[in-house]
Amino acid sequence: MNAKKVFLKALLILSLLLVALISLFPILYPLMSSFRTDQEIYQYNTVFQLHTLWPEKWTTEAYQQLFQVYHFERFFLNTFIVVGLIVPFSILMCSVAAYAFTFYHFRGKKPLYALLLLTFMVPGEVIALPLYQVISGMGLINTYASLILPSLANGLTLFMYCQAFKDVPISLLEAADLDGASWFTCYRHVVMPLCVPTTIAMCLMTFVNEWNNYLWPLLAARKDEVKTITVAITAFKEENVVHWNLIYSSSILSAIVPVLLFLPFQKYFVSGIASGSVKG
Length: 280
Prior knowledge:
The chain is an all-alpha fold. The protein has helices at residues 2-33, 38-43, 50-53, 61-68, 72-103, 109-118, 124-137, 144-148, 155-165, 170-178, 183-191, 196-211, 215-220, 229-234, 244-262, 266-275. Helices cover 70% and strands 0% of the residues.
C-alpha cells in the first residue's frame, strides 16, 4: 500500500513538472535564445534537443547590440514617457467622470453612460483609421500627444470606478456636504481613499495595456524620436533576414517591466477587480 502511494505521489510530481515545463516553455525558449547567436538558433531549431533550450555557447551579444548599435534606451524612455502620462491622467479623468455618473443626476445620464461603455466594446482596429485622420488633421502625427490623447478616456476604467463608487455610503458624502466640503473635496478625501484597490487595479491594467500597445503606435509614431518598444522590436524583422536573437532579447527586456510591476501589487489587483465587479 505504501509503495502504491509513493508511486502515485511520484507520478503526480512528474505530471506537475511536465505541466510546469510546458507552461514555462514560451518564456524559457525566448530567454535562452536571447543568449545565443542567430546561427545557433537556426542550427538547433529544426530538431528538438537539449541545445534547443540550453545555449551551446552563451553570449550577451544581442543585449550589447540593442543598446550600443540600436540605442534601445531611447525606445524605453519613449514608452515610459507615454505610459507615465497616460496612467495618471486617465485615472483622473475616468474617476471624476465616474463620480459624476454615480452621485449626480442629470438629463441624458443613462444614454450617455451606455454610449461611454460601448467605447471599450469596440475593437481598436475598427476606429484606427478614422482616429488617424483626426490626429493627422490636428498635426499631431509623430508626437507624444498622438500616443497619449486617444488613450486618456477609457470606458472600462470608467465602468470599474462606477461600480466601486456604488459601495461608498452616501451618508459619508452627506456629512461632508453639511461640513461645507466641495465636490472635489468629497472626491479626493472621501471617495477615492475608499477605492484604493480599484485605483491600483486600473493603474496596472492601463499600464500593461499601453505598454504592450502596438497597432496605434505603429500608425501614429514611426519616427525614432517617439517610437515605442513594441514598434521598435518589429524593426528587427527585415525583408530578407530576421534577427531572432535581437527579437528575443528585446522582448525579454520589454516583458520584465510589467512583470516586476505586477507581482508586488497582484493581491491589490485581484481585490480591485473584485470590488469593481457587477453589483446585484
